[in-house]
Amino acid sequence: MENKPVELVLPDINEPVLIEGYPGIGLVGHIAGNFLAKELDMELIGHVESPFLPPMALVLEGEPAPPLRFYGKDNLIVAVADIYVTPTLVTEIARELAAYLKRNRAKKVISIGGIGTGMFKEELDVWGVGARKELNRELENAGVKILQYGSIMGMSGQLLWEARKKGLDAYVLLGETFGDRPDPKAAAKVIETIKGILPLEVSTEPLLQEARIIEEQLRRMHEQMEQARQRAQKQYENIYL
Prior knowledge:
This protein is of the alpha/beta class. It has helices at residues 28-39, 87-103, 133-141, 154-165, 184-194, 205-240, and strands at 7-9, 17-21, 43-49, 58-60, 63-65, 68-73, 76-81, 108-116, 126-130, 145-146, 170-177. The strands form two sheets. It has a nine-stranded mixed sheet, with helices on both faces. Strands 4-5 form a two-stranded antiparallel sheet.
């Protein structure tokens, strides 16, 4: 890797479909990407090399693994990251990835992320935008609300822009999430949306079950906090009233 801040160690795959799931709001992309890699029984096929990445190795299922990885099966590639990547590296990785996808005539590029609502919603929506306006119609047919204004930060936004410059069919899908905790329910919603765009056969029930466990834990925590508040209020009244 001479005079390059980033190198993709990734075999050439003809006409690939890429799904990117880097960490972001609610860890929606991170959860969705890793879930797809596991449920689709994908193999580790590549990684990102850079002297500017932290010196570390993950341990996954008893083996060392790089923090920025690519999983593959047939022509599907899933890009995941288990660390937050600095803005400069995000730009370099997105450029290299867009060049790779252009060279291999990628069919679609889909980035997954979260969009914070700051409130709890029973029914979650998925927002999105395509690299070109005509691609938005495909998203609308899949039930996606089109983002008309705003900003998309991180890898999802940068990859969308780099893909647009290369003339690739690229999309960003953002699942609504409260934003202050990992949100498997939002990840499941985005995956269900992707199934309307790509021929994926995967059940999101494990993610929904995980979401129900988290919601139950939060409910119990809220009850405990409310009980503590009531006890404190009663003690105050006994002493001062």
